[in-house]
Structure formats: structure tokens, C-alpha cells
Amino acid sequence: MPLITSKNMFQQAYASSYAIGAFNVNNMEIIQGIVDAAKEERSPLILQVSAGARKYANPVYLKKLVEAAVEDSDLPIVLHLDHGEDFEICKQCVDDGFTSVMIDASHHPLDENIAITRKVVEYAHAHGVVVEAELGRLAGIEDSVNVSEKDAAFTNPDEALEFVENTGVDSLAVAIGTSHGAYKFKGTPDLDFERLRAINKKLCGTPLVLHGASTVLPEFVDLCNQYGGTIPGAQGVPEEMIRKAAGLGVCKVNIDTDLRLAMTAAIRRELHENPSNFDPRKYLDPGRDAIKNMVRHKIKNVLGSNGLV
Ligand code: G3H
Ligand code: 13P
Ligand code: ZN
């Protein structure tokens, strides 16, 4: 099966209140771990590539690795650009055969965000590629300390409607209190579900996207810490909140940090327990297994996209 777009995937996810995992990929072991998990869980899949991943792995290598995954798995897979910062990188990815791109012009004023996004949509749609855009600013741990700051940073439901109508975008990433990385909340995790409900109602049918959706499971933080790391105070989005979001129009859930933690914990443990191991295959293999277990868990127990293909 060739790479596909997320159009039908999202329609079905929206109608049945589950979400598709969009997992960040940077190298062969990560891709293999994710794809093996999706194969075993019979789940559709989005593999996403950031500008940093393209720089690290070289766009040609990454593209060929994803092609290998498609050939090896026969799964419905979307190849997506994560956080494209301008028209040029989106165009490059469309030209390179990606089936989905994200234009992230969320740091620009609304009218500029609309103009940049519309330009990407025109180019991508002319080439059969779908587009995700972002409206609102993801919170950092220090951000949004009071209600009016939250209101300024989070996605406004009326603006969301104006944005979608004026850009023709296929899906919209919303800011409701999540953030990237391992440190998402200072105190009790809190997402603005009323806002999400209002956005979903206004957009009635446009698939929504949740960035910064890693859960940062304590057992992996503990494992990382136990074998020589220090990541104190790490805290992510509780799994029940991800499930709740999937029932409110969120069709795509972005996960990177949880993969990083799982892989790093496994490699640290291996090297700690077998300090004489200097064969990369023998420490990357447990890392790849850890990715696979984490992705299986997400698909089956959190996102609900198992058993579909
Ligand atoms: O949203 C960011 C993703 O976790 C990708 O991170 O830019 O370090 O590759 P990166
Ligand atoms: P996490 O850092 O929570 O995994 O979010 C990843 C993400 O949003 C990629 O775009
Ligand atoms: Zn993101």
C-alpha cells in the first residue's frame, strides 16, 4: 500500500471518537519500533518528521526509511511534516512525496497566519497533500498563569472558525493547555476542555490536533533517573485526558517525548547492566523494543485505533 493522506483516517476517527497517533521519527530504530507496534495492533499510523529530524537524519535517508516501512508493513501510513515553519519547507516536503504537512505560523498575527496557511493549502492541495495548521500558542510551564493570559494564548473558538473558513485547512492544532517536552504542568494537570468543546462545536467536523500530548509516565522517568539521568518534576498529560479529547474532535495526537523517554530508559538500563556492551546493535535493540511497547500501549489503551486494518 502506498503512503496515504489522513483524510479518510480522520473522518473515521472523528465519527467513532478515537484518535490516530502521530509519532515523531528520527532514525531507523524509532521507525521500526513504531511500525512493528502498529502492525501488531492493526492500527493506521502517522509518522511525522520535524525540521530537526530532517537535519539530523538527512531528508533522503528519512524518506527512504519510511518507504521501507511502508513496503514492509502494508499498513495505511501518512508521512507528515511536523511544525513546518514557512512555505518553503512545506513545499519541499510536498515535492519530496510527503502526504501531509503542517504549516505552523501560529506565532504570527491572525491575518498573517491565515495568509501563510492559505498559500501552503493552495500548493499542497494542488498536489493531493493535506494540511494541518495551528491557531493559538502552546503553553510553556511558566506561561498562562492567569485567566486573561490563558485567554490570549489559547485558541479562540470564533477565530478558529474564521481561520478554517479562510484557509481551507484540513485539520487544526489547538492550544488548550498542553505543551511540548517533559515539563508540562507545575501543579495538577489541567486542560481547557470547555474551550475544546466550544471549538469542536464551532468547527463541526474539522479534525482537531493535540500537540504536546505525551503523558510522561512516571515509571519511565524513574527508570531514566535510576540509571544515571536527572529529570525531576517531569509531568505530562494524563491518559484519561487524551481519551476525553478524542471524544471532542481530536483525531490526531502528537507523541514524541514519551518515545524519547522509553528509548532512553531502555538504553540506559542496558548499558548499566552490561557495561562491557559496546555493540550498538545490542543496546539499540532494547531501545527499539521499548519504542514498540510504548506505541502498542498508546494505540491500544489510550488512542483506541487498534484492530482497524
Ligand atoms: O514538537 C516538537 C517535536 O517533539 C519534535 O522535536 O524539533 O526536537 O525534533 P524536535
Ligand atoms: P510531546 O513533547 O508531548 O511528545 O509532543 C510532541 C509534539 O507535539 C510534536 O509535534
Ligand atoms: Zn508539536
CATH superfamily: Aldolase class I
Please compute the radius of gyration using only Cα atoms: 19 Å
Sheet with the most strands, sense and barrel status:
8 strands, parallel, barrel
Number of helical runs? Answer: 13
What layout of secondary structure does this protein have?
Layout: H1 7-16, E1 20-24, H2 28-41, E2 45-50, H3 51-57, H4 59-73, E3 77-84, H5 87-96, E4 100-103, H6 110-126, E5 130-135, H7 147-153, H8 157-167, E6 171-174, H9 193-203, E7 208-210, H10 218-226, H11 239-246, E8 250-255, H12 257-273, H13 280-303
Parallel strand pairs: 1-2, 1-8, 2-3, 3-4, 4-5, 5-6, 6-7, 7-8
The structure holds glyceraldehyde-3-phosphate, 1,3-dihydroxyacetonephosphate (13P) and zinc ion (ZN).
1,3-dihydroxyacetonephosphate binds near residues 82, 213, 254 and 258.
Question: Top keywords for this entry?
Answer:
309 residues; alpha/beta; TIM Barrel; 8-stranded parallel β-barrel; 8 strands; globular; binds glyceraldehyde-3-phosphate; binds 1,3-dihydroxyacetonephosphate; binds zinc ion
Q: What's the quick description here?
A:
The protein has 309 residues and is an alpha/beta fold. It has one domain (7-303): Alpha-Beta Barrel (TIM Barrel). 52% of the residues lie in helices and 14% in strands.
